[in-house]
Amino acid sequence: MSSKTTVPIELLRKYDRPGPRYTSYPTAPIWSEEIGADAYADALKTVSSEAEAPLSLYCHIPFCRKRCYYCGCTTCIVTKESTVDNYVDALCCEIEKTSALLKPRRGVSQLHFGGGTPTSVGINRLQLILDTLERSFAFVSDCERSMEIDPRITTTEQLDFLAERGFNRISLGVQDFDADVQTAIGRIQPYKQVASILEHCRHLDFKGINFDLIYGLPLQTVKSFGKTLDRVIAMHPDRLAVYSFAYLPSVKAHQGKINPSDLPTTDVKYQLFGSAIEKLTGAGYRQIGMDHFALPDDELSLALDDGRLYRNFMGYSIQSAPDMIGFGMSSIGYVDNGFFQNISRLKEYSRRVADGSFAVYRGMKLSNDDLIRQYLITSLMCNFRLSWAQLEKRFAISYADYFADEHSRLRDFFDDGLLKETVDGLEVTPVGRAFVRNIAMTFDAYLTDDSRGKKATYSRTI
């Protein structure tokens, strides 16, 4: 059973600072544009011989019918159907070209569609993409197939289609149910609309139904967000992601439509985050990572108990594949211990693929030190613990020797009750889970005076 976790506001104040989210290590700002299409092709060929190893696939559909003011995703507002058709053609071409280099390796254990709004392209185009994927790869029987949907435009017909094509997980963008907040962020989405979509998803027997919420939005108050949380708890989704709003109008120009005076103060934002943890854990949800929650009988909760949680750009999962392939503009892959990211400009992505190349424009090949720190940070971020014996067995190093300096800098976390030392490792406490990004930062070799590290601009940890 889960028990209510209360996070003291003074600790939120103390540890709130810019820092990576660690969907990857090393993090994307460190990657180099010297890594391109040729390096990616070589990596695909290298791992092709591992025929029995499963793959994870991600497809990015960047289109939205209207841009929400808060959005930080790579999206396009396109009205020409021909533009969408050209993109889908390029995506299918990229899938086929990638598969050709990966043969005989074809098995897939995880497929995720994100965006943008994947369902915005309609059933016929989704069918074309899925047919191409299924011709090019072989999906294992228990493959996790998930898609992000916008309840405002996703139809029951589309949900029926997804269920028929084997999708078993759905993530709904909710953000906040308060009408004033919805107006302030340019996303009018009534409660009844979400409830109707949720009901149909359950009718189709989707598992692991997820809601995305955001705290720190304009006009949010502790009281109003509390009402949203109460409504969400009553709806009883299997999983929840509760993200911090990063207000960066200099980077995302459309965020300029938000009145900065409407944003919650820093202390109110701390209270919003703290109340979310307290309400959700009090309602029986278990905290998964820094900002995800799951019911006790959900697969993520069970995997947390067994130390089997895995994390990549698609979120938390129980499906651990050594290589992840990204398709579409801005998508990211992880192949042969290296990161590869596609260009984020729509026309340039389509042009490069049409020219017979890959659209990769930057990446990073991991060193042995990177792999050691990646393993450690992933263990903490996913399973809230690190086994020194497993680290030593995997990399033939001694934690005490290799990380002597980093361990000495953990003292505040120990003293504040966020981290504890066990007989064989480290364990993040229930309160410490809210600060796992901060703990992980201690082991990040690039958060230094290194010239590459200075380039990075990160969101705040709270």
Low-confidence stretches: 449-454
**Span from first to last CA?**
26 Å
Going by CATH, the homologous superfamily of the largest domain would be: Aldolase class I
What count of domains describes the coordinates?
Answer: 2
CATH topology of the largest domain: TIM Barrel
Spatial order of the strands forming the largest sheet: 9-10-8-7-6-5-4-1-13
SS strand fraction: 15-25%
- CATH secondary-structure class of the largest domain: Alpha Beta
| Percent helix range | 25-40%
Query: Helical region count?
Result: 17
The counted number of beta strands is 19
- The structural class is alpha/beta
Features:
Arc Repressor Mutant, subunit A, 9-stranded mixed beta sheet, 38% helix, 17 helices, alpha/beta, 462 residues, TIM Barrel, 20% strand, 3-stranded antiparallel beta sheet
Describe, in plain words, how this protein is organized in 3D:
This protein has 462 residues and is α/β, with parallel strands linked by helices. The protein folds into 2 domains: 121 residues, Arc Repressor Mutant, subunit A (Orthogonal Bundle), CATH 1.10.10.920; 295 residues, Aldolase class I (TIM Barrel, Alpha-Beta Barrel). It is built from 17 helices and 19 strands. The strands form 5 sheets. A 9-stranded mixed beta sheet has the order 9-10-8-7-6-5-4-1-13, sandwiched between helices. Strand 9 and strand 10 form a beta hairpin. About 1% of the residues have low confidence.
